[in-house]
Amino acid sequence: MMKQLVDKTGPGNQVEDPTEEVLPGDLMTNRQRAQLVLVLGALIAIGPLTIDMYLPALPAITTGLQTTETAVQLTLTGTLVGLALGQLLIGPLSDVVGRRVPLLAGLVAHIVASVLCVFAPNIAVLGALRVLQGLGVAAATVVATAVVRDLFSGASFARIFSRLMLVMGLAPILAPTLGSGLLSWTDWRGVFAALAVLGALLIVVAALKLPETLPVARRRRGGIGATMRDYRGLLNDRAFVGLVLVAGLAMAALFAYVSGSSFVLQREYGLDEQEFGLAFGAGAVGLIAATQFNVRLLRRYTPQQILVSALIAGTAAGLLLVMFAATGFGGLGTLLASLWLVLAATGLAMPNAPALAMSRHSEAAGTAAALLGAVQFGIGALSAPLAGLFGTGSVPMAIVIAGGMAASLLVMLFVVPRASLGAVDPDLAVALH
Q: Which of 111, 224, 298, 349 is least enclosed, having the fewest CB within 10 Å?
């Protein structure tokens, strides 16, 4: 039935209303929309699960593969590099060849990489396979977002996309807890076996339940040349580039926490794998609560005001984090409190920077989203091992977190020209929360 709805809005099937085209999603029943959200939500969730599910096992991987903590952190970097490159490549590709082929190919790559991770003999092989996992995850993430854009617009787009973003927020909360549960009866290799099974389930669901949503008549022409022109136009926009850097540096602070927290909380503060999963999940709850609260703040304040205020608060919390980590004052309680304040500030900053950036280039939304995602995960990939170069204690992690927030604030204040920031489409602002 969903395929029939998609086909109805192909060439020659436009509605008679000259002011608005009814997209396939507008013809769906509530049950069909719910089914679509479940399918796309599962595709989006595989990204955070792939990134975060093995976090409780990082110390065990260090011991099992007889390597260093910094080298193990680089396996997270590999995943983020794959995500960054994959979005740059797969986003434009899906506009040319359609959604299903890149999606199914990406899921196959994810399954193969996950199975091979189970048998990885050393840290170098594991790191390379994590890059391939990231490429597969990028396909699922980009295509899921593109499908929503194919089927919906306006307020309908905002409602569907906001539900998917809630899935994106809940998955990191559940992932370390799921990983901790798996580690209670298997070793770290079992986590990758579980990811392979998840990928196999998703490829079956996608093949059976998700039709092609981009008709041939709506596919992009011009090949690589057109894509490069779009990227060049985006990079020539100083405000867009600045906002992308703001989002990327905020992401750097987040991934410095993601990559370093398992070592800090388990080895330095003595939490076991299950306690770490709970602590990590509590921080993610704060981040998600902040993103949802941001919707209410937008009723009274502009995205620029919220973004600057969040970056100031995040920088201040980051400096407190450095102080507590360096002095040990208050022990684990003050460390976690300041960490959670940084995460809450990040939850306010991360939706508003993309909303401001995307509102500038609606004519090239897909390419702009791909570049935005690539920079975010690319900078995150650099920050993940940065703290590890100076050790895996709380002080190096805190310095990188505070540095990311401070750099993001400086770029916002001195690189992004405020006069060039216009109004943001309300539907877009809601959709990015």
A: 224
Mean pLDDT value across the chain: 83
Q: End-to-end alpha-carbon separation of the chain, Å? A: 30
Sign of CA dihedral 217, 222, 224, 230: negative
Whole-angstrom Cα distance, residue 127 to residue 58? 13
Report in angstroms the alpha-carbon separations of 429 from 154, 170, 289, 432: 11, 20, 16, 6
Please state the φ and ψ torsions of residue 222, each to the nearest 5 degrees. Answer: 110, -15
Question: Residue 59 corresponds to which amino acid?
Answer: P
Residue-wise pLDDT for 344-370, tens only, equals 999 888 878 887 887 776 556 667 777
For residue 306, how many C-alpha atoms fall within 13 Å in the half-sphere facing its CB?
27
Q: Which letter, b or e, does each residue of 120-136 get, where b requires 16 or more Cβ atoms within 10 Å of its Cβ?
A: beebeebbbbbbbbbbb
Separation of alpha carbons 279 and 89, rounded Å: 36
Residue 410 has pLDDT above 90, yes or no: yes
> What pLDDT is recorded for position 420?
60
201: enclosing H helix or E strand: helix 188-209
Alpha-carbon gap, residue 149 to 269, rounded angstroms: 45
C-alpha 346/C-alpha 254 separation (Å) is 8
What's 360's DSSP letter? T
Tens digit of pLDDT for each residue in 102-161?
A: 999 999 999 999 999 999 999 999 999 999 999 999 999 888 878 887 887 665 665 676
Give the E-state strand segments of 375-432 in sequence order: none
Render pLDDT for 302-358 as a digit per residue (tens, 0 to 9).
888 999 999 999 999 999 999 999 999 999 999 999 999 999 999 888 878 887 887
Q: What tens digit of pLDDT does each residue of 247-257 get?
A: 899 988 988 88
Which H or E element spans position 51?
Answer: helix 30-52
| Neighbouring C-beta atoms of residue 238, cutoff 10 Å | 12
